[in-house]
Amino acid sequence: MSLPTWIKHHLANPCQQQWRQAQSLGWDIDQSEVYCPRCGSSINIQAVTKRGCVFCVNQKLPWQSLHRLSAYHPPMSDWILSMKFARQWRWGTHLGKIMAQQWDWLNHLDQVVVCPVPMHWLRRWHRGFNQASLMAHSLGKARQWPVTSLLKRTRHTPPQTQVVPSQRAINVQGSVTAKTIDLAGWTVLLIDDVKTSGSTLKTCCQVLRKMGPSEIHVDVAAVADPKKSDFTTI
Are 169 and 157 in contact (CB under 8 A)? Predict the structure, then answer.
C-alpha cells in the first residue's frame, strides 16, 4: 500500500516541515523595516539615514544593498548550523528558494547574474558542499537567472568565526580572485549564508567591482549581531 501524496511530500521536505512549524509558533522572515538596508544590522529603519545606521554610518560599502532572511538567532541559526556541520545540505536549497519567492524587491532587477561566495577546495572537500552555492543555484533556478562562480578562493584561511573581529579583514585579504569576465550592464547578486563582520563579503565585492557590474546586491540567510559574538559556541 503506497503512502498518500501529501504524506510523501511531507516526509520528503523536512526543511519545509520545520519552517512551517516555526511559523506556526510565531516566527517569520524579517521585514525590511527591522534592519539596516546597507549593512543588515538589526535596527529600526527610522534610525537609518542615507549615510547608514549606527553600525555603518559613513562607511563606504562596496555593494548597493544587503538583504537578509533573519538575524542570526534561533531557529535560523539552528538551521544554518545543521546545514554546515550536520550535513543537512537541503537547507541550502530551501533557503535559496525562500529568498526567490518572498523578496519582492528582486522583481525590479534586470539582467541579473547570481554568484555564490566561493569556498576553498579543501574546505569544500571536507564539508562536501558549498552552502552558498546551493543557495545561489536554488535562487537562480526559481528566478530563471544564470548562476556563475565568478570568484575563486586562492588561499585556505581559518573560518571567520574562529578569528577575532579585529583580524577578520586581514584573514581574508588576498584570498579571492575573479575570472576575466566583462559584467558591464549586469547586476550581481552575491549569496552567502551568514554575514558576520562583513569582511568576506567586502573582499568579494571589491574583486567583483573590477569586472564592471552596474550594481552588486548582497543576499544572506542571516546577519550576526555586530554588538556581540554570536559564534562563541562554534
Answer: no
Q: What is the pTM of this model?
A: 0.86
pLDDT along the chain (234 residues), means of 10: 48 85 97 94 87 91 97 97 94 97 95 95 84 98 96 72 59 73 96 94 94 97 79 43
Burial bucket for residue 147 (CB in 10 Å: 0-12, 13-18, 19+)? buried
Integer Cα distance of 87 and 183 in angstroms: 34
Q: State how far the Cα of 19 lies from the Cα of 1, in Å rounded to an integer.
A: 29
Residue 161 CB contacts under 8 Å (≥ 6 apart), including other chains: 196, 231, 234
Kindly list the structural domains of the chain, giving each domain's residue range(s) and its CATH number in brackets, ordered by start. 5-30+61-223 (3.40.50)
Rounded Cα distance between 17 and 19, Å, is 5
CA distances (Å), 46 to each of 33, 50, 65, 68, in order? 8, 11, 17, 18
